[in-house]
Amino acid sequence: MSLMQRISTFLRSPKGQQLVDRGRRELAKPDNQQKLKGLAARLSNRRR
User: Fold this and answer.
1) Which has the closest alpha carbon to 27: 39, 43, 15, 9?
2) Compositional bias (Basic and acidic residues) at which positions (predicted)?
3) Taking the domains of the chain in order of start, what are their residue ranges?
4) What is the pLDDT of residues 5-42, one digit of tens each?
């Protein structure tokens, strides 16, 4: 079984669904969105 297949199987499992839901809740928080935007800006500046 390839790595992608294992990840896909995990994400369809109940524990995987809990992890996905938790991630969505965390990403909905304004503080975390601001942190991600800052990280994306830093990463894009490195590429130049």
Assistant:
1) 39
2) 21-34
3) 3-46
4) 999 999 999 999 999 999 999 999 999 999 999 999 99
